[in-house]
Amino acid sequence: MTTHLPVEVRRALDARLSYPEVGATLDAEMPQGYRHSERRVRVGKGREAFDRAADAVMSWQIHRGAGLTVLASEERAEPDEVAVVRLTVGPLHVDGANRVVAVVDEPDRRGFAYGTLQGHPERGEQAFLVDIDDSDVVTFTVRSFTRRASLLALAGGPLNSRIQDRITERYLMALLEAAHQARS
User: How confident is the model over 6-48, as pLDDT tens digits?
Assistant: First the structure.
């Protein structure tokens, strides 16, 4: 039953993805014709740090920690779930509806990718991945490919790229903060 969900989420449940390259943020090569971004940060060391970081990613904590509002169909990122991510600046807000297109749940890698739905100001996909290597070093990576899809995004010009980069930085910092708080 979806009646308990916010109206923005209920509307997004029936929306279609706005791009054809579904899952491409998890591929070695991202598709041409988009702006590509990849940022990585070292989170810590050990299995406990890996588990904490993965939980922060899967529970939308990094989005909220980055100062965004998340209206989601579920409290954790799951395949086909919808999340409306809201950026608020003063009295204005911009909503971007996304669908989880892939969940990664491997022993040494966890995270998810979501793609933009029709009506999102951008078109493309973003992945949030936590890895632990053979030396027990934990890293968090945010990968994306995007292009402008609305008049608002087109009018924003180069400012849109700066905003996207700033939000990515905030994701990275939010993950580090979540990992640090869990240790305290």
Answer: 888 888 899 999 999 999 999 999 999 999 999 999 999 999 9
CA atoms of 132 and 108, how far apart (whole Å)? 5
Q: Other C-beta atoms within 10 Å of 34: how many?
A: 18
pLDDT digits (tens, 9 = 90+) for 80-110: 999 998 887 788 888 899 999 999 999 999 9
Query: Count of alpha carbons within 13 Å of 102, Cβ hemisphere only?
Result: 19
- Type of residue at 71: L
Residue showing tokens 């968090």: 140
Three-state secondary structure call for residue 90: coil
Q: What's the CA gap between 144 and 158, in Å, rounded? A: 17
DSSP 8-class letter at 25:
G
List, edge to edge, every strand of the sheet that includes 92-106. Answer: 35-45, 137-148, 122-132, 109-116, 92-106, 82-89, 69-72
Write out the H or E segment, with its range, that includes residue 59: none
